[in-house]
Each structure stands twice: as C-alpha cells, then as structure tokens.
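Sanity check

After download, print the first record. It should look like this:
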Amino acid sequence: MRLADMTSSAFHARAPQRCAIIPVGAVEPHGPHLPLGADTIISDYFARRLAVDIDAWISPTIGYGVATPPQRLGGDFPGVIAITGSTFTRLVTDVLRSLTEHGVRHHVLLNSAIDNISFLCEAARHINVMFPDTRIMVLNWWDVVGEPFRDTLARETGVARSDDHHAGMVESSLVMHIAPDTTRPELIAPDQPGPGPRRLRYHVFPLPQDAATPSGIVYTARKASAEIGGRVADQVARELAAAVRLEFDIDAPRP
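Expected structure tokens:
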C-alpha cells in the first residue's frame, strides 16, 4: 500500500495498475490544543482509508506546505515552517512527473491545508500539459463533507458554521479522533464574551491587533470531541472514495 515499503520490482509491476495517493499537509500552529502537524496527520489518515477503499497505494507525504496568512491562523504564532509557493509547486510537479514517468496515470493529491490549493492546481496543470493522458484530482477533505452533514452538526452543537474555521470544532474533533495522544483539549479556553476578533474579508500584513485571536482558534473549538471527529471521519472517507471512483471510473466494491 505504501510506495516507500515496496521494492523496485514491486513498484514497477504495480505502478501502472493503481491510483497513486499523495498526502499533502503543512506545519503550522493550530491553537494550544492541537499539534503543529495537524494538517499532515489528517491527510495521512484519509490517505490510508482511501487506499483501502479504492485499492490504491500511497506515495510519501509532502509534509511542508505554503505559509498560511496570519488572518487564517488567527494571528502570528510560533511554528509556521513553510516553503515558498514556487518551491512547493516545483516539488509537487516533480513528484507527479516522476510517478507519471514510471507509468502512473491516476493521481490523487489529498490535501488538508487551504493555502496549498492553488499551487497544487498549478502543478496538476503542468503535468497535464506534459502528459495529456494523466488524470489528477486535488481533493481537500473539507470539500466533501457535504452541506447537509455540516448543517446537522451546527444544529446539534449550536456552533454556527461561520464560527468553525481553523483549529475550530470540526478540525479539532478530527484530530482528537485520529490522534488523541497529540491533542490537549483541556487547553481550549472558553469563548470570550463579546463580539470577538474583527472578521476581515481581505488580507492585511501585519494583521491588525483587533483581528487577531488570543489562542489561534478561529473562531471557536467549543463542543469539539472525538465522537464528532469519528462521525466526520467516516463521512469524509465515504465521500472521498465516492469522488475518486466517479472521476477515475472505479467500480464500487460488491456488498
């Protein structure tokens, strides 16, 4: 299932016959309660589930991403270990090119960091120009959760979707479910009274103080739990597999 565990001959035999899943994450702060590698942990988890569901194999993870602007992180906090957009695009392009030269024609870039998206799409475009017979999906886990499912969670928890962003309830719950030993839910501070940080619809550098959060949770992680994380994980895993089967014309498993 994992390219890094295969021998050269095994890879040569299987490369043209399977879809390649490339997990993509980032290293950046996720509040006081989640690890810096939360995005990578999530991508690795869903890559494993997807590989089983569609009989694919997993390429080594791209664990460094493009720096997320302070507005999306809730402020400037230690732990952003990033590479430039141009370097990231070249890295992803080179990985895709190498895999394609070995016969792989279906690629899934399974991403968990929002600011990687445009660069992943740029790399995919480069490869499609070089190898027109390739098909590449850029899949972000939050895009397949589904509107009714998210609305149901919001109603059940009382946490509005507009308040559930970076390191918020859904992402925190996912990591609590996937990697509980890496989380510190007791460090989630109660929501502050009042209107909270000013919500910008654009980026300003440096981030204005009144738009920063005190903890890096944008905007609340209250009600986060491993139980919710398990529900989200199962929903996302099903929808990821359905999307890949649809785009790559893979038969669903028989009951």
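If your output differs, re-run the checksum step. Summary of this record's structure: The chain has eight helices and four strands.
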